[in-house]
Design goal:
Length: 364
């Protein structure tokens, strides 16, 4: 395990050396990323956890396994490109120390959730609360020394983009696991969505108090459409998705969008953008050909029904036509799907960001 980690770090050094160019005039000084495996760029490589992706065929189209839960780049990798920034290094990597942190840091951790207990059956993971604490450490130990006075640091943080993609695990690795977690016995579906939003609101206030001002809240995708959930339903189910699960997620997303509106009026100087990932991704499931996709309900690398019964295993042979698949493994999109999502949420012509695109947010 130690030798594998050393190899990953060395490969990161090569990758980071080639990925530093970015735009000479980035739209934002930095991009700080918080979330789960959808945007984890390798943090879980460094902690004792079952939730890791530092082995082939993960990263097969990146060139090597980085710890990303994808065959290639994630949504925030493409998002950084739209912002004119280099790919953001994971916080736990040696690459995030010193001047490298000035362009941003990725704190996301696979299996993490809004609630601290979420995903605990996987072992170690950095909860959203823990990620915010890491952000505070970055500011105090790494960023502060690069600014002559506190006002300059505040201005830098206020102009930086804060990306938050969290909440999916609070369903698939908590509420929807009654044999491991008690939340579904304690809370109704609406009460649980309220709990998540109340907790998330307090966490966002922590980020605001640390200096974050431009924040992007990514809604949860239609979790009832992922291979993992499809593999659990009856073989007689002809629906493309598990409707009951999608309805739960929609309750969360409605409240998340309302939270963005509320915070825009209650936190002075802040601006929140809500990314409607649910509707976009659902359309990709229902109308894959509209996006150049062919297979929308089966994992490119997985096992069992829909490739969702057991996720992508070490050295497993994935599908060859990966650009035609919506799902890479039992839970995560392919690089092709991530590119489509990023274009529709980060670019100047984004159609699924409210009230403005991330590109426009960065220009403010």
């Amino acid at each position: 395990m130690k030798s594998l980690l050393i190899c990953v770090v060395l490969l990161e050094l090569v990758w980071f050396g080639h990925g530093q160019s970015g735009d000479h005039h980035p739209l934002a000084p930095a991009f700080f990323v918080f979330g789960d495996s959808l945007v984890d760029s390798g943090n879980n490589n460094y902690i004792p956890t079952l939730a890791r992706a530092n082995y082939f065929p993960y990263g097969i189209d990146f060139g090597f396994p980085t710890g990303r839960f994808c065959n290639g780049r994630t949504v925030v990798d493409f998002g950084a490109t739209y912002l004119g920034l280099p790919l953001v290094p994971p916080y736990l990597s040696p690459l995030s120390i010193g001047p490298n942190s000035l362009r941003g840091v990725n704190y996301a951790s696979a299996a993490a959730g809004i609630l601290d207990e979420t995903g605990q059956h996987y072992g170690a993971r950095t909860t959203f609360n823990g990620q915010i604490s890491q952000f505070e450490i970055t500011i105090e130990l790494h960023l502060r020394r690069f600014f002559q006075n506190p006002a300059d640091l505040r201005k830098y943080l206020a102009k930086s983009i804060i990306g938050i993609n969290i909440g999916s695990n609070d369903y698939i690795n908590n509420y929807l696991m009654p044999e491991r977690y008690s939340t579904s016995q304690i809370y109704s579906e609406e009460e649980y969505a309220d709990l998540l939003i109340k907790t998330l609101s307090a966490q966002i206030s922590r980020l605001y108090n640390l200096g974050a001002r431009k924040m992007v809240l990514a809604g949860s995708g239609p979790l009832g459409c992922i291979p993992s959930q499809l593999s659990m339903v009856s073989a007689n189910n002809n629906s493309r998705c598990v409707i009951k699960i999608n309805n739960m997620v929609s309750m969360f997303n409605i409240r998340l969008k309302d939270l963005a509106n509320t915070l825009n009026t209650t936190l002075p100087g802040s601006f929140f953008v809500y990314q409607n990932v649910y509707d976009l991704f659902h359309d990709m499931v229902v109308n894959p050909s509209r996006y150049g996709l062919v297979v929308a309900n089966e994992a490119c690398c997985g096992n069992g029904r829909y490739g969702g019964a057991l996720t992508c295993l070490p050295l497993q042979q994935p599908c060859l036509d990966r650009h035609q698949y919506l799902f890479w493994d039992a839970f995560h999109p392919t690089e092709t799907a991530n590119k489509i999502i990023a274009h529709n949420t980060f670019s100047k012509s984004a159609n699924y960001s409210y009230p403005i695109s991330v590109y426009e947010l960065a220009k403010l």
